[in-house]
Design brief:
This protein is of the alpha/beta class. It folds into 2 domains: 173 residues, FAD/NAD(P)-binding domain (3-Layer(bba) Sandwich), CATH 3.50.50; 122 residues, D-Amino Acid Oxidase, subunit A, domain 2 (D-Amino Acid Oxidase, Chain A, domain 2, 2-Layer Sandwich), CATH 3.30.9. It contains 8 helices and 19 strands. The protein has an 8-stranded mixed sheet. A 6-stranded mixed sheet has the order 8-2-1-12-19-18, with helices on both faces. A 3-stranded antiparallel sheet has the order 9-10-11, with no helix packed on it. Strand 10 and strand 11 form a beta hairpin. Helix 1 runs parallel beside helix 8. The longest helix is centred in the C-terminal third of the chain and has 18 residues. The radius of gyration is 21 Å and the shape is elongated.
């Protein structure tokens, strides 16, 4: 196999994870081609609440990976100043939230200092000051533009039809426009990863888990942090757009995205002062790629030489750190132990 910078790497998928991989690979001088079936950030990235959330309840096999997420985004900001990440912190008002090392316990007065529009603040809440959120579509385009500036090529509206192989080695990607030769192929197409892996004879259990994403037009300065409680999960952009995330319940009429958006709007009115009007601009279902055991799948496919997979939830939170670590593995041919819990071979029967 070719070494280091001589490798030709094809990244399949131009969501935020594929974009981060492409940027980090190109940053190291690798020859990169991104292949995307639709447009940049056209999949679940476009419907992501985009919370850079480092907390996790219960045992966490990827605690080290998750813990590096914030620092990695700060590093990216120094390289790509146009990312425009909002480091507002995250305020958890739920009485069921357990205290963590990353979050500070606040009094009611401190809560109101952060969020003066709350009508009924609890006696105590947890505040993770280091957390933030981003515009996932904008960040993905910025990463892709950064990769292109470093020599990467991007092929949009280009569907993968199969793979060219020699014995057990992947040597190219088959598209309607022809074969793209490659030394390494990276599967970073979100919920499409299972289908791509099937083409290579490997079964990966990645579930398309639905969630509701809502965007409202409303008054500016209603929400200053990212607020999470049993009634709502909301944040506001610098431009004043209010964003909300809700669980998908079922396909009943009363649980369609527009109906949930209206119920959530009512909850926001009941929780916040100053909501003169709140109108849904967008309410839709996003399909999150969640591996069957909830742990990211990152690494080379077993029994297939030259095929690397990268799929996870939360993709936005982990995109920066995974993009850097996975690109290091691909270029240096040296496994990083931080990614060991994520290896795809855990799903392969012995």
């Amino acid at each position: 196999m070719k070494k280091g910078l001589e490798k030709r790497v094809v990244v399949i998928g131009a969501g935020i994870v594929g974009a981060s991989l492409a940027y980090h690979l190109a940053l190291k001088g690798t020859r990169v081609i991104v292949v995307e079936a639709q447009g940049i950030a056209s999949g679940v990235t476009a419907t992501s609440f985009a919370w850079i959330n480092t907390s996790h309840s219960g045992p966490d096999p990827i605690a080290e990976l998750r813990g590096a997420a914030v620092d990695e985004y700060h590093r990216l900001e120094t390289q790509l100043p146009g990312l425009d990440i909002r480091w507002t912190g995250a305020l958890s008002l739920s009485t069921h939230t357990s205290e963590t090392q990353q979050a500070s316990r606040l009094s009611r007065a401190q809560i109101l200092d952060l969020e003066p529009n709350l009508k009924n603040p609890p006696e105590h809440a947890l505040y993770a000051a280091e957390e933030g959120a981003l515009d996932a579509v904008h960040v993905t385009h910025t990463l892709i533009a950064g990769a292109q500036a470093l020599g990467a090529k991007v092929l949009k509206q280009t569907r993968v039809l199969g793979f060219k192989t020699l014995d057990t080695k992947v040597t190219g990607v088959e598209t309607a426009s022809g074969v793209i030769d490659a030394d390494i192929v990276v599967l970073a197409a979100g919920t499409g990863v299972s289908g791509l892996a099937d083409m290579l004879g490997v079964s990966l259990p990645v579930q398309a888990s639905p969630s509701i994403f809502i965007r409202y037009a409303t008054q500016p300065n209603l929400v200053h942090t990212l607020i999470s409680n049993t009634q709502m999960e909301v944040r506001q952009t610098a431009e004043g757009t209010l964003l909300a995330a809700e669980d998908y319940l079922d396909d009943a009429a009363e649980n369609q995205p527009k109906a949930i958006a209206q119920r959530t709007a009512n909850a926001i009115r009941s929780e916040l002062h100053g909501v003169v009007s709140i109108e849904p601009e967008l309410a839709c279902v996003g399909l999150r790629p969640i591996p069957a055991d909830g742990i990211p799948i990152i690494g080379y496919l077993p029994n297939v030489d030259g095929a690397y997979v990268c799929v996870m939830h939360p993709g936005v939170a982990l995109a920066a750190v995974v993009g850097r670590l996975a690109s290091d593995e691909i270029i240096d041919d040296k496994a990083n132990p931080v990614l060991d819990p994520c290896r795809p071979d855990r799903f392969i029967q012995a």
